[in-house]
C-alpha cells in the first residue's frame, strides 16, 4: 500500500473505503475498497476532500480480487447458468433451466480448503428452477497470489464444480398391484399421486395398469410398458415383507438389475430401485411403498428428480441418505427448504 496524489490515481486500486456524507441525505461509501479509479472519479474524489489516496501497489505476481474472482467463477460455472457481475471479488451463479444441480463435492471441498477464496452453494442433487441462485463465490483478500489461483485451476483439472442436468421429457408407465384394487374392493389412491409427481418434472404418464398379487402378472405389465417405449416404470404396492407382498419378486423376474431394496429414509424404507437394460438404455423400475400414497414427502421425492434428469443412482448414494433421511412431518411442509434428504 502506498500514498499517491489523487490526480495520479487513475488505474490504481483503492485500499480503503471512501465515505460520502451529505447531512440528512446520505452517509455511505461512495467508493469501496478494491475500486479501480477512473478518470471520471477524480473530480468526485477531490470534492470529497481526498487530495491523496492509499492504493495497492501493482505487482505482476498478484491478482486483484476481481481478476481472481473471474478465474474462480470459470472453475464453477457449467452449462445452463447465468453469472452476476463482479463486485468486491464476488460473483454469483443462477440457473437458467429447470433441472438437477450436481456438485463435485470433492472439488468444492478442495477449493475451499486452499484458503483466501470461498464457494458457498446449495446442496448437491437439489432440484432448481430458472432464476434460482446456485452458489456465491468470493476472493477473500483484496489481492491474491497468482500462484494460489493457478493451484485452484490445477485442482479442478478442467472439470466444472457445478453442473445442471435438465429434466428429460420422459414417458412413464405406472403399474399398481393389489387384489383389493384389482377387484374393485377399494379405490386406487396411488395413480393420482404418481401422475401429479411425474407431471411436476415434465414427464408424460403413458398409462396405468392394475394387477392382482400374482407376480407373473405384475412382471408382464412392467415389460409391456417397456416394450411400448417407457423411459421409466413405477410399481406401487406390495413392497413390504408380508408373504403376499410380491412386487420385489416381480421386478427381479424381469431381469432388471436391482440397485437396492431398502433405503435409510423415513417415510420410504421399503423403496426398491432397479434398472432394466434395453437397446443400450438403462430404464429405471422403482418399487414404491405405501407411504408414497399418503405421506407428503418420501424417499420417492428425493429420487424422482434424479431419475427425470437421467442421473444414475447408486446404492452408495442411497445409503448416504440416512444423514437427513428422517422427515419430521412438520405441520407446515417446507420441503425442499429443509434438511430432509440432503445427505447425498
TrEMBL record:
Pathway: Cofactor biosynthesis; molybdopterin biosynthesis. Residues 173-309 form the MoaB/Mog domain. Keywords: Magnesium, Metal-binding, Molybdenum, Molybdenum cofactor biosynthesis, Transferase. GO terms for biological process: Mo-molybdopterin cofactor biosynthetic process. Its EC number is 2.10.1.1. It catalyses: adenylyl-molybdopterin + molybdate = Mo-molybdopterin + AMP + H(+). It holds the Pfam family MoCF_biosynth. GO terms for molecular function: metal ion binding; molybdopterin molybdotransferase activity. GO terms for cellular component: cytosol. The keyword Protein transport does not apply. Its cofactor is Mg(2+). It comes from the Bacteria. Belongs to the MoeA family. PANTHER family: MOLYBDOPTERIN BIOSYNTHESIS PROTEIN, MOLYBDOPTERIN MOLYBDENUMTRANSFERASE. Catalyzes the insertion of molybdate into adenylated molybdopterin with the concomitant release of AMP. This is Molybdopterin molybdenumtransferase. The lineage of its organism: Bacteria, Bacillati, Bacillota, Clostridia, Lachnospirales.
